[in-house]
Fold these 2 entries.
Entry 1:
Amino acid sequence: MTKQWAELTPSEKREERFKRWISPPGVSFASPQSAKAYKERTTRLARALQLQVPDRVPVFLPAEFFAASYAGTNLRTVMYDYAELKRAWLKFLNEFDADTFLSPGMVPPGRALDAVDYKLYRWPGHGLGPNALSYQAVEGEYMKASEYDALIKDPTDFWLRIFLPRICGAFEGFTQIPSLMSFQEIATVSFVPFGLPDVQASFQALLEAGRESMKWLAVVIEVGNAAMAAGYPGMAGGLAKAPFDTLGDTLRGTQGIMMDIFRRPDKVQAAMERLVPLVIDSAVAAADFSNTPLIFFPLHKGADGFMSVKQFETFYWPTLKKVLLALVNEGILPVLFAEGSYNKRLDVIQDMPKGSVAWYFDQTDIFRAKKEIGDKYCLIGNVPTSLLMTGKPQGVKAHCRKLIEVCGKDGGYILAGGANIDEGNPDNLRAMMAAAKEYGTYNK
């Protein structure tokens, strides 16, 4: 008798998720060769991620917005012209012999942002020059210090009636909606606020943004399907954030959150605990939908330069660990992108089961990390972004060789950049692949 999902052990769930990733149901590959290549690539990645020895060291090319400049266009154009978005990403796909495919899903639809007067980003032509290579987050105090209780009591209500009107000018009408908890069976009065002109204008903006986002999503899915059909797997089934980063990046801002851990530490802890199940549910849903067992965590404010080891142990790691353990229990392998340096965190982050997560390092001393945690977790990284942007192919290849020979010893390593590049010499990316093929093959 076949077990139900809830009856499976965490290891059985992971095995099932990786099986679906390696042999995805319902995919029509372009050719038998593409199907074979897809299985080889996903198997290579799966073995490295699970501390096994693959046929060779896998490579994750760090080229998030690079496809736009490589195709002779720019970020602003592909944010507004989805045909150009498709052309650029398919050109990159077809002209680089990569192990993975990086989706254009991180390129936001410009017209949807315009429709809601989005304030959390500046992007090319909207707060930045038209030829800017990336968008920028705009930090601010989008949640006041006095509003922790509102967030903790009802996150959805807080998001709808307080947070969204602050980050989207078009949603100011939502401030006139009463709490939906006030809805009763005699519903006549409850409908009145939705007839107010400002509220209706906010909903119209939301509908416009939704329609535009569906056009964008159709292209993102089309490109992703083309990549899979050609034999290239994606590297992430979805994105998630540490609860501390949700507070610090999105709500309170860096200054606000760093003051809060001194002035109101109990509120910070309670808010993070309230966010934990929300992060878990969202990440599991993303992995289920994508049939990819990897959830990518960009870790921002846990880096060495943001807080002390004691603060990391007190405020950052405990709720993040709760999220990670819950995902591991669901058979998901979290990929933790440690932005900045985590040299002072290596002792703390060993507090997870062997093989449960992968650590993607930016500026951390990855050779030290190999010695200290390389036998417990797959390591990913960290060809310097500066080298990829300004170096020569032979220099890139030499650095990759050292990474492969040290970090790739006995498996459990994926070659990648410290961070993504937006422009540069395409031959530097090709040099990464060449190094893996020349130096990263394991003897069977």
Entry 2:
Amino acid sequence: MAIYKPSEDSFFFSDFLKSHLSKLKNKDIKYLDIGTGSGILAGAALNSGIKKSNILASDINKESVNFVKNNLMIKTIHSDLFSKIPKANNFDLITFNAPYLPEDKDEPEDSKLATTGGKKGDEISLKFLKQAKQHLNENGKILLLISSLTPLNKIKKFKPRIIARKKIWMEELLILGFD
């Protein structure tokens, strides 16, 4: 299985995260990057002054976990969303550049894991949101990137705020914030 290479969504989210983290007065936060892929978001956090010891990157893809561990030298964990994230870890910020596209039966199986969010496109994001709050500190924040191709009706039940958006080709990328 190949590592998800950064694409327009990754660069958009990374730029947003750098800007968001640069505004923090206190850089001593605990940060979790779910679905780290190439580690672009974890790297943005590290380059923004978040202590290496406070960053945890996870992915369902073992190649991604090893790549990020060896290249960024940060803590990594092989996990399907929160399945292996210790319950004792409470984070100030959790990010997820979710696989958000609706299922495409013609897409090769090896790329579906990184791009397909389920039959409709929102299933993985919903599973993430149901679990994420249990891993947040009291004033923690969740940032989730999805697409205008992702159904929002069920995600809206979690009371997201659209905090950034970018139009690309035939869709719009949305970064949703959750308190």
